[in-house]
Amino acid sequence: MKLNNRVLRRLAAVSLSLSILSGCTFISDPVLRMKAPELSADKASLMTAITSHMPAGASLIRPVSDDDSSIFTEDLDKDGTMETLVFYSTKNEAVLIHGMILEKRDDVWEKKLVFDGGGTELDSVDLRDVTGEGKLNIIAGYSRGVEKGMVVYSYSGGELEEVLSQPYTKYMVDDLNEDGIEDITVVYFKRNEFATITTYQYNDGFKVLDELDDLDPYFSNYYNIVSGKVAENKEGIILDSAVDSRSAYTTVVVMENNKLRVVIPGDARTFKDRKIVSEDIDGDGVIEIGLLEPPKGWEYFDPETIPYFNSYYKWDGKNGLTFSALQYRDPSDRFRIDLLPEWHENVTVDTKSVQDKSLKFILSNTGETVAEISFFSPAEWERVKSSGWKILGFDLDKFIGYRGEVEQNTSGGDNNKITSPIERKGIDE
After folding, report:
1. Which InterPro entries does the UniProt entry name for this protein (predicted)?
2. C-beta separation of 420 from 402 below 8 A
3. pLDDT at 94 over 80
4. Considering the domain 27-167 in this protein, what is its CATH number?
């Protein structure tokens, strides 16, 4: 069904007025790429220097895991002179990826060295002090298909040295043993063969702090790995494993007394019939594990028709999980509703609801409707848009509408309107 010009104009106006909450990221490793204040004015001469020192036919490349920049400018060895690091690719050569470092001397960018990278793609680049020497190391990840290799370089006095080289599925720079010194943890997985986690720390060379080599390798792949706070004041790693194309489970690993320990194994407690990314869902700095829970009353429906909730839990620091947050996420990722945490186990979805048509969220104890989602044709939308409906998104020729608020008594006895936060997909992306 085609939209008329009047509707299109209204959609354009709506798309400009709605903001989109930031989406999920795959892995939360920070990348420090501090650009020198003078780089903006120096950009033209820097680009000229870079292109003049690259071979004919070569092209700048940026990390696959980051589309922000292909030029990294920092004082790598902290000698007061700025360096610029770039990577470029060449064709029809035995080595396809090359790194180049330039130094700025008397307002002129000079080439200091060129080094070869492995693989066919530049997977990641981090600039971090992982040797504790007060200098920024270059951590580069290279890939060739599913195989990846990570190299840590130390740059000083115009010389580049490899100080660590390891195959990996994912590497993370963190402080797992919380001794104030950054370490590197490498997750390495090959389906049906092995799944290992190894933590390295620099002490006159990189040494293995500990290794887990008995993890279950019998799953499809890791679809999400994230490091950070896994409980209050506790660093760790959360690994989301895809069992097959749909189902998944989650494992939590921490380090205690320089020993890696699995505190939440990938078992029935963290199994879900749909992949859910572990993340800091409530913004308190602690990463939550997502589980799939059917609304009350839907337990015996066809699983394909159930409008599941995403319930998020924190590791309790012992052997269990505690509830944190509640969401409804559209299976096709067109929208999301954040429901009040106190509604957990009390909010459900009317069993007359049908996905891709209409959903009604109600409180089990009162039957009160707190939110509605509905799909409208353009003509239907024209009729209902003035009755409290807001646009969540679009699906082909359908408008996806939302409305909902509930009178809730606060501790002070006042009545306040509480509207569930929402994430709109496909409006002004």
Report:
1. Integrin_alpha_N (IPR028994)
2. no
3. yes
4. 2.40.128
